[in-house]
Design a protein that fits this description.
about 10% strand; alpha/beta
């Protein structure tokens, strides 16, 4: 069998979060470390991010946000099931708890998703080529059905399915992260029939949960890529791979590079969270720009691309 190659979308999430995250993401793109960005339209530096994407010709999609900050849809900002008493989304775990408690209106979820796509279009001048969920909200029960319907209606072709090969053989992950990632994976697997029914596409393989923050290293990235290539060969053609003489595995690597947010600058209405202020953001930035990683891509026959190239 000919040596397989990989078409890899490296997506910088949380574009627009703050000027320092924007700066790091642009530098990473210019260095060849990422090939795609996912925009938070309700974040404080979203307009600046779009201007930077236009200036540097960075492929841009939508990071749909139902868990952090303030809704985009004005009718949901005063009183809705999506916000707490302070007018903010319920948070990463709070959103999940409200969903489990049957406290969220899916009609309001749909209104907010459509409002975010509309704002994306107003900012960029076009619809997103891909749309995923901030903190993986798009694969949650009930939400995934609404999410798929919106993508289908608006003909947004690609999403993210966060199921990572090799996730369960990562002893370095703390127990609470293992539990959260295992739940994300279960929700993502349950989303596949829904996304399939609506003819939404996604790359053959997904990487990124095992290589976040301090866990991002050249050996860990190499391990994740090897797992994805091996598993992807048996998965070619299921969603994004094109059949040809030379096997091609399509994959997405989710990353969160940037310079750490200043305490009072950025976020989606509540200021920047600990995740964005962490030194982990700059660690990811330096890893993704590392010449030895770019050499590894070349050695492994990995070609970085955007969703529109799949």
């Amino acid at each position: 069998m000919p040596q397989p190659r990989m078409m890899l979308v490296v997506t910088g999430d949380d574009f627009g979060y703050c000027p320092r995250r924007n700066q790091g993401i642009v530098e990473c793109f210019q260095a060849g470390g990422i090939s795609n960005v996912s925009l938070l339209v309700n974040a404080s530096a979203a307009k600046e991010a779009v201007d930077l994407a236009k200036r540097h010709n960075i492929p841009i999609g939508l990071h749909a946000n139902l868990s952090e900050g303030i809704p985009v849809c004005q009718s949901l900002q005063k009183a809705s099931t999506l916000i707490n008493q302070h007018g903010f989304f319920h948070g990463k775990m709070g959103f999940r708890q409200a969903l489990e408690g049957d406290q969220l209106s899916m009609e309001q979820v749909e209104l907010e998703l459509r409002a975010q796509v509309q704002l994306f279009k107003e900012l960029t001048g076009h619809l997103p080529q891909h749309m995923d969920g901030h903190q993986h909200v798009h694969v949650l029960p009930e939400v995934r059905e609404v999410f798929a319907q919106v993508l289908s209606d608006l003909r947004i072709p690609y999403t993210r399915v966060p199921v990572e090969t090799g996730l369960h053989s990562c002893p370095w992950l703390p127990a609470h992260l293992h539990r959260f990632y295992a739940q994300v994976e279960k929700d993502a697997l349950d989303s596949i029939p829904v996304f399939t029914r609506y003819r939404i596409r996604w790359p053959d393989m997904y990487l990124g949960l095992t290589t976040m923050g301090q866990n991002m290293s050249i050996p860990n990235l190499q391990r994740a890529l090897s797992h994805a290539l091996a598993a992807g060969l048996s998965n070619i053609g299921s969603s994004g791979g094109e059949g040809s003489n030379q096997p091609v595995v399509t994959a997405e690597l989710m990353v969160h590079p940037g310079y750490p947010s200043h305490p009072q600058e950025g976020g989606c209405g509540e200021g920047p969270d600990d995740f964005s202020q962490s030194a982990d953001r700059q660690h990811e930035l330096s890893m993704l720009k590392d010449p030895s990683l770019l050499a590894l891509y070349s050695q492994k026959r990995v070609q970085l691309c955007a969703f529109k190239d799949l």
